Protein backbone atom coordinates (compact mmCIF):
# COMPACT_ATOMS: atom_id res chain seq x y z
CA UNK A 1 0.00 0.00 0.00
CA UNK A 2 1.47 3.36 -1.03
CA UNK A 3 1.54 6.45 1.16
CA UNK A 4 -1.31 8.19 -0.71
CA UNK A 5 -3.65 5.22 -0.30
CA UNK A 6 -2.75 4.96 3.38
CA UNK A 7 -3.34 8.69 3.86
CA UNK A 8 -6.77 8.50 2.23
CA UNK A 9 -7.86 5.51 4.30
CA UNK A 10 -6.70 7.12 7.54
CA UNK A 11 -8.53 10.37 6.75
CA UNK A 12 -11.76 8.60 5.81
CA UNK A 13 -11.74 6.06 8.62
CA UNK A 14 -10.85 8.60 11.31
CA UNK A 15 -13.80 10.83 10.46
CA UNK A 16 -16.08 7.87 9.71
CA UNK A 17 -15.63 6.41 13.17
CA UNK A 18 -15.86 9.77 14.95
CA UNK A 19 -18.48 11.97 13.26
CA UNK A 20 -21.43 9.51 12.98
CA UNK A 21 -20.67 8.28 16.49
CA UNK A 22 -20.75 11.83 17.85
CA UNK A 23 -24.03 12.51 16.00
CA UNK A 24 -25.64 9.33 17.31
CA UNK A 25 -24.43 10.11 20.83
CA UNK A 26 -25.85 13.63 20.59
CA UNK A 27 -29.23 12.37 19.44
CA UNK A 28 -29.20 9.73 22.16
CA UNK A 29 -28.49 12.45 24.69
CA UNK A 30 -31.66 14.18 23.57
CA UNK A 31 -33.51 10.89 24.22
CA UNK A 32 -34.68 10.55 20.65
CA UNK A 33 -36.13 7.27 19.38
CA UNK A 34 -33.85 4.68 17.82
CA UNK A 35 -35.54 5.02 14.44
CA UNK A 36 -34.72 8.73 14.32
CA UNK A 37 -31.08 8.07 15.27
CA UNK A 38 -30.84 5.47 12.50
CA UNK A 39 -32.47 7.75 9.93
CA UNK A 40 -30.38 10.80 10.84
CA UNK A 41 -27.23 8.73 11.17
CA UNK A 42 -27.71 7.09 7.78
CA UNK A 43 -28.37 10.45 6.14
CA UNK A 44 -25.22 11.86 7.71
CA UNK A 45 -23.24 8.80 6.67
CA UNK A 46 -24.25 9.19 3.02
CA UNK A 47 -23.76 12.96 3.01
CA UNK A 48 -20.48 12.70 4.90
CA UNK A 49 -19.07 10.05 2.56
CA UNK A 50 -19.98 12.17 -0.47
CA UNK A 51 -18.53 15.32 1.08
CA UNK A 52 -15.33 13.59 2.16
CA UNK A 53 -14.96 11.93 -1.23
CA UNK A 54 -15.51 15.25 -3.00
CA UNK A 55 -12.90 16.85 -0.77
CA UNK A 56 -10.43 14.10 -1.66
CA UNK A 57 -11.19 14.53 -5.36
CA UNK A 58 -10.67 18.28 -5.26
CA UNK A 59 -7.43 17.86 -3.32
CA UNK A 60 -6.12 15.32 -5.83
CA UNK A 61 -7.22 17.48 -8.74
CA UNK A 62 -5.52 20.49 -7.17
CA UNK A 63 -2.26 18.54 -6.76
CA UNK A 64 -2.30 17.54 -10.43
CA UNK A 65 -3.14 21.04 -11.64
CA UNK A 66 -0.40 22.52 -9.42
CA UNK A 67 2.13 20.09 -10.85
CA UNK A 68 1.10 20.93 -14.42
CA UNK A 69 1.33 24.65 -13.70
CA UNK A 70 4.83 24.32 -12.24
CA UNK A 71 5.85 22.04 -15.12
CA UNK A 72 4.81 24.68 -17.65
CA UNK A 73 6.65 27.40 -15.76
CA UNK A 74 9.82 25.33 -15.39
CA UNK A 75 9.76 24.36 -19.08
CA UNK A 76 9.48 28.00 -20.11
CA UNK A 77 12.34 29.03 -17.82
CA UNK A 78 14.65 26.35 -19.21
CA UNK A 79 13.89 27.58 -22.73
CA UNK A 80 14.13 31.32 -22.01
CA UNK A 81 16.72 31.62 -19.24
CA UNK A 82 18.81 28.43 -19.43
CA UNK A 83 21.88 29.95 -17.78
CA UNK A 84 19.87 30.90 -14.69
CA UNK A 85 18.47 27.39 -14.52
CA UNK A 86 21.99 25.96 -14.80
CA UNK A 87 22.99 28.08 -11.81
CA UNK A 88 20.08 26.61 -9.87
CA UNK A 89 21.23 23.08 -10.75
CA UNK A 90 24.75 23.91 -9.50
CA UNK A 91 23.25 25.35 -6.31
CA UNK A 92 21.34 22.13 -5.70
CA UNK A 93 24.44 19.99 -6.30
CA UNK A 94 26.51 22.21 -4.04
CA UNK A 95 24.21 21.41 -1.13
CA UNK A 96 25.20 17.76 -1.54
CA UNK A 97 28.91 18.62 -1.43
CA UNK A 98 29.51 18.03 -5.13
CA UNK A 99 32.72 19.66 -6.40
CA UNK A 100 32.59 22.57 -8.87
CA UNK A 101 34.23 20.47 -11.60
CA UNK A 102 31.67 17.70 -11.24
CA UNK A 103 28.88 20.26 -11.11
CA UNK A 104 29.92 21.66 -14.49
CA UNK A 105 30.15 18.21 -16.02
CA UNK A 106 26.76 17.22 -14.62
CA UNK A 107 25.10 20.44 -15.83
CA UNK A 108 26.53 20.07 -19.34
CA UNK A 109 25.28 16.50 -19.66
CA UNK A 110 21.90 17.29 -18.10
CA UNK A 111 21.36 20.23 -20.46
CA UNK A 112 21.65 17.87 -23.45
CA UNK A 113 18.33 16.27 -22.56
CA UNK A 114 15.61 18.82 -21.88
CA UNK A 115 13.13 16.28 -20.52
CA UNK A 116 15.61 15.00 -17.94
CA UNK A 117 16.53 18.58 -17.08
CA UNK A 118 12.90 19.48 -16.46
CA UNK A 119 12.37 16.32 -14.39
CA UNK A 120 15.44 17.13 -12.30
CA UNK A 121 14.22 20.66 -11.57
CA UNK A 122 10.71 19.49 -10.72
CA UNK A 123 11.94 16.92 -8.23
CA UNK A 124 15.04 18.49 -6.70
CA UNK A 125 14.24 22.20 -6.91
CA UNK A 126 10.49 22.13 -6.31
CA UNK A 127 10.18 18.80 -4.50
CA UNK A 128 7.36 17.68 -6.79
CA UNK A 129 6.75 14.28 -8.31
CA UNK A 130 4.28 13.79 -11.12
CA UNK A 131 0.94 12.65 -9.68
CA UNK A 132 -1.22 10.08 -11.41
CA UNK A 133 -3.89 11.82 -13.46
CA UNK A 134 -6.46 9.37 -12.09
CA UNK A 135 -5.30 9.95 -8.51
CA UNK A 136 -8.14 12.36 -7.74
CA UNK A 137 -10.84 9.80 -8.57
CA UNK A 138 -9.19 6.97 -6.67
CA UNK A 139 -8.52 9.23 -3.71
CA UNK A 140 -12.20 10.20 -3.62
CA UNK A 141 -13.29 6.56 -3.71
CA UNK A 142 -10.84 5.50 -0.99
CA UNK A 143 -11.80 8.32 1.38
CA UNK A 144 -15.55 7.92 0.81
CA UNK A 145 -15.34 4.14 1.18
CA UNK A 146 -13.28 4.32 4.37
CA UNK A 147 -15.68 6.91 5.81
CA UNK A 148 -18.70 4.72 5.04
CA UNK A 149 -17.10 1.62 6.54
CA UNK A 150 -16.11 3.52 9.67
CA UNK A 151 -19.54 5.13 10.02
CA UNK A 152 -21.45 1.85 9.82
CA UNK A 153 -19.83 0.62 13.05
CA UNK A 154 -21.35 3.13 15.53
CA UNK A 155 -24.73 3.11 13.78
CA UNK A 156 -25.06 -0.67 13.60
CA UNK A 157 -25.71 -0.94 17.34
CA UNK A 158 -28.98 1.01 17.04
CA UNK A 159 -30.43 -1.61 14.69
CA UNK A 160 -30.26 -4.26 17.41
CA UNK A 161 -31.37 -2.32 20.48
CA UNK A 162 -34.76 -1.14 21.68
CA UNK A 163 -33.95 2.34 22.96
CA UNK A 164 -31.44 5.02 22.07
CA UNK A 165 -29.93 4.67 25.56
CA UNK A 166 -29.24 0.98 24.96
CA UNK A 167 -28.03 1.84 21.47
CA UNK A 168 -25.60 4.39 22.85
CA UNK A 169 -24.08 1.89 25.28
CA UNK A 170 -23.66 -0.76 22.58
CA UNK A 171 -22.43 1.82 20.07
CA UNK A 172 -19.87 3.14 22.54
CA UNK A 173 -18.44 -0.32 23.15
CA UNK A 174 -18.27 -1.14 19.43
CA UNK A 175 -16.84 2.24 18.45
CA UNK A 176 -14.21 2.47 21.17
CA UNK A 177 -13.10 -1.06 20.32
CA UNK A 178 -12.92 -0.12 16.62
CA UNK A 179 -11.08 3.13 17.42
CA UNK A 180 -8.56 1.24 19.53
CA UNK A 181 -7.85 -1.27 16.75
CA UNK A 182 -7.70 1.47 14.12
CA UNK A 183 -5.40 3.64 16.23
CA UNK A 184 -3.08 0.71 16.93
CA UNK A 185 -2.86 -0.28 13.26
CA UNK A 186 -2.44 3.35 12.19
CA UNK A 187 0.47 3.71 14.60
CA UNK A 188 2.12 0.60 13.13
CA UNK A 189 1.80 1.88 9.56
CA UNK A 190 3.01 5.38 10.43
CA UNK A 191 5.92 4.11 12.54
CA UNK A 192 4.45 5.70 15.65
CA UNK A 193 4.13 4.14 19.09
CA UNK A 194 1.05 1.90 18.59
CA UNK A 195 -0.28 2.27 22.14
CA UNK A 196 0.07 6.08 22.07
CA UNK A 197 -1.62 6.23 18.67
CA UNK A 198 -4.41 4.01 19.98
CA UNK A 199 -4.88 6.14 23.09
CA UNK A 200 -5.03 9.39 21.12
CA UNK A 201 -7.54 7.96 18.65
CA UNK A 202 -9.83 6.66 21.39
CA UNK A 203 -9.54 9.90 23.37
CA UNK A 204 -10.54 12.04 20.39
CA UNK A 205 -13.56 9.86 19.69
CA UNK A 206 -14.60 9.92 23.34
CA UNK A 207 -14.29 13.70 23.60
CA UNK A 208 -16.29 14.30 20.42
CA UNK A 209 -19.08 11.94 21.45
CA UNK A 210 -19.19 13.25 25.05
CA UNK A 211 -19.42 16.85 23.88
CA UNK A 212 -22.25 16.04 21.48
CA UNK A 213 -24.10 13.99 24.13
CA UNK A 214 -23.97 16.60 26.89
CA UNK A 215 -24.81 19.53 24.59
CA UNK A 216 -27.84 17.65 23.28
CA UNK A 217 -28.89 16.68 26.81
CA UNK A 218 -28.50 20.27 27.99
CA UNK A 219 -30.58 21.66 25.11
CA UNK A 220 -33.29 19.02 25.46
CA UNK A 221 -33.75 19.71 29.15
Describe this structure in words.
The chain has 221 residues and is mostly helical. It has one domain. The chain contains eight helices and no strands. It has helices at 3-29, 34-80, 82-95, 100-110, 114-125, 135-156, 164-189, 194-220. Helix 1 (3-29) packs antiparallel against helix 2, helix 2 (34-80) crosses helix 5 (114-125) and helix 6 (135-156) packs across helix 7 (164-189). The radius of gyration is 25 Å and the shape is elongated. The model has no long low-confidence stretch (mean pLDDT 81).
Largest sheet descriptor: none
For the record, the count of structural domains works out to: 1
Q: What is the helix/strand order?
A: HHHHHHHH
Total beta-strand segments: 0
Principal-axes geometry comes out as elongated
Low-confidence stretches: none
SS strand fraction: under 5%
**Helix count, DSSP H or I runs of 4 or more residues:** 8
Oligomer: single chain
- The radius of gyration computed from the alpha-carbon positions, rounded to a whole number of angstroms, is 25 Å
Distance between the first and last residues' Cα: 49 Å
Percent in helix: over 70%
Integer average pLDDT? 81
- Structural class by helix and strand composition: mainly alpha
Amino acid sequence: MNSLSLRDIIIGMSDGLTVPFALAAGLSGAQIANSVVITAGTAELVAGAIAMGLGGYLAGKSDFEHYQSELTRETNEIKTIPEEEKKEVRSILKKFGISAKTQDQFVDELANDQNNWISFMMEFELGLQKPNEQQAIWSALRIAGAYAIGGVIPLSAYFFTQTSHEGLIASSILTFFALAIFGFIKGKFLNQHPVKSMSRTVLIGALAASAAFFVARLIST
